[in-house]
Design goal:
heterodimer; A: 296 residues; mainly alpha; MetI-like fold; 69% helix; 0% strand; B: mainly alpha; 67% helix
Chain lengths: 296, 300
């Protein structure tokens, strides 16, 4: 995001050849490992390739089929709904935590360290742990207190399983969002608070009139980054529900990968290309909003 | 990869912690409020309870572990889970593969991105270098599922459907983020330093290794930690790329407990714990840099 140009150094000098040696290996490897596969995949989405052997150009047939495939539409609906709910939950919790963790508390370092911990835990493994807690511990706690709806595993309930995925995804995603908010809150100059204090503004008023408006830029960044990340959710779903019960929690990423093993190669590449276009729209949105912020 | 964090630039270096705002509320005790601390401590249980459950489950006997109570203390204390998990996941081998991939990813990410950032920041006025920067950045917007299927085919064709291929791809996906950090950091280094080194007769290559690379150390720490975490915890890429199950990474291998051995909860939790522990240990050792790299805005 460091889009403002680095200071022009030695403006008229010719480029020393050794700099190409520093740059080109990276650019070439990057092209081979990421750009070539991307272009290849997009090109093959206009063919009937099954991943190997002969294929021919079939135009937009795959795209038309994708748009009329109820399974894929359901995956998009689930993924977008899930991403929206998760991004809201994560940001509300992370923002409140950031405010609390930057105010006068005891054991601040230790508390921050604990709240950041989930960021470093493997998604698939923690999903297995939560899988056990949701299917064994939660039902036994629920029946002990006589709370009916949770006496069965939430993961087996097609209407509730997505909530479990939201909870675990949020559990893991809150730390990253939290760190950005902490940075945002700490970046507010202290004299702003001092001035407000002198004018008689209390803690609540300072929060509403200083902290919230001055961190608005970070909110936008977090919403976009979060949404982009949650659209790609894969391993936590694998660890919790495997896309079920039925196909009720199958995300777009999952449907793309499943298609690969089912031999729907070009068809799923059309799906992936649509997914990519959505990502580009989000990226452009991100560039627009962050360019408005000077330091970004 | 979905959890990757942007470093948030701070507009100034964070002096505004509550402790340094002495005049804000002079009447309040300097050390902080107990009420809020206690509320936060209670909230932190949501983080700690799942980890606590993993620990106590891991030390139970198989018989105690099936009773469905994840929160009871292990009695008697048993290491059977760890012993069995050790053999079931062939721990030394899978651990070594994970360490190999993570180490190559960290070293490769730091080397390639600092090289590229060095070249880019010195030649920004040259179109090739400027466009390379945006080209490398573009991958940040490319969702992995879009390139995954073609990557699986290509890595298979060139016989990189193994840990080496996974490590290379991990490096490639870290590039955008890392080149961005390094480039931003290099801008803050005064050019006079380099010029005096050049007057002393140092070549560009020597300038990089003797002067620039040591100066990059704090940023390298941040880049390295994020590369390590992304690589160690990745699930999608090793699952898709690595063809031979015997070469699978430690976190990915945990899926054997979902199908086989699914009732030996003490074994599976012991194994989960062993798969999570390295990342947690690295974090506890390095959290000073994670925190400072991210919250102090080492880039300006």
């Amino acid at each position: 995001m460091a889009l403002s140009s680095p200071a022009p150094v030695r403006r008229r000098r010719r480029v020393e050849p050794v700099f190409y040696l520093f740059l080109l290996p990276t650019v070439i490897l990057f092209t081979l490992a990421i750009m070539v596969p991307a272009v290849m995949g997009i090109a093959l989405s206009f063919t009937n390739s099954v991943g190997f052997g002969d294929f021919r150009f079939i135009g937009l047939t795959n795209y038309i089929a994708v748009f009329s495939d109820p399974a894929i539409l359901a995956a998009y609906l689930f993924t977008i709904g899930f991403a929206v709910v998760t991004v809201l939950l994560v940001n509300v919790v992370a923002f409140l935590l950031a405010i609390a963790l930057t105010s006068r508390i005891r054991a601040r370092i230790a508390l921050r360290a604990v709240f950041v911990l989930p960021m470093v835990v493997s998604g698939i493994v923690i999903a297995y742990v939560f899988n056990y807690l949701f299917s064994n511990s939660l039902p036994s706690v629920a029946s002990a207190v006589g709370f009916g709806p949770l006496e069965q595993s939430v993961l087996a309930n097609p209407d509730l399983a997505w909530l479990a995925i939201v909870v675990v995804t949020a559990w893991q995603a809150i730390p990253g969002t939290l760190l950005i908010y902490i940075a945002g809150v700490l970046a507010i100059p202290s004299d702003v608070y001092e001035a407000a204090s002198l004018d008689g503004a209390g803690g609540w008023r300072q929060l509403r009139s200083i902290t919230v408006p001055l961190t608005a830029g970070y909110v936008v960044i977090n919403l976009i980054l979060g949404f982009k990340g949650f659209m790609n959710t894969y391993d936590i779903i694998v660890g919790l529900t495997g896309g079920g019960p039925g196909t009720s929690t199958t995300s777009v990423a999952m449907s793309i990968f499943n298609g690969f093993s089912n031999g729907d190669y070009s068809y799923q590449m059309a799906n992936a290309t649509i997914f990519f276009l959505i990502a580009i729209v989000i990226a452009l949105l991100q560039l627009r909003t962050t360019r408005g912020k000077a330091a970004l | 990869m979905s959890t990757q964090v942007m470093p948030a630039p701070a507009t100034h270096t964070a002096p505004a912690t509550a402790g340094s705002r002495p005049r804000r509320r002079p009447s309040r005790a300097q050390r902080g409020s107990w009420a809020l601390t206690i509320i936060l401590a209670l909230c932190s249980l949501t983080v700690l309870v799942p980890l606590y459950a993993s620990c106590v489950m891991a030390f139970k006997t198989t018989r105690q572990a099936v009773d469905g109570n994840a929160f009871s203390l292990p009695f008697p204390l048993s290491l059977d889970g760890f012993v069995q998990a050790w053999t079931l996941t062939d721990f030394p081998r899978s651990f070594a593969i994970s360490v190999f991939i993570a180490a190559v990813t960290v070293a490769g990410t730091i080397a390639l991105s600092s090289f590229a950032a060095f070249a880019i920041s010195h030649n920004w006025e040259n179109r090739v270098f400027r466009w390379s920067f945006f080209y490398l950045l573009a991958a940040m917007f490319l969702p992995f599922p879009v390139v995954a299927l073609s990557q699986v085919k290509l890595t298979g064709m060139v016989h990189l459907d193994n840990p080496v291929g996974v490590a290379i791809l991990h490096i490639m996906f870290q590039l955008s983020f890392s080149v961005m950090l390094f480039t931003a950091f290099l801008r803050s280094i005064p050019t006079e330093l380099e010029e005096s080194a050049r007057i002393d007769g140092a070549s560009t290559w020597q300038v990089f290794w003797r002067l620039v690379f040591p100066l990059l150390a704090p940023m390298s720490a941040t880049v390295g930690i994020f590369a390590f975490l992304a690589s160690w915890n990745d699930y999608m890429m090793p699952t898709l790329i690595t063809a031979d199950p015997a070469l699978q990474t430690l976190p990915v291998l945990q899926n054997i407990f979902q199908t086989q051995f699914s009732n030996n909860y003490n074994v599976s939790f012991a194994s989960y714990l062993m798969a999570m522990a390295p990342a947690i240990i690295v974090y506890l050792i390095s959290q000073r840099w994670v925190m400072s790299g991210l919250t102090q805005g080492a880039i300006k």
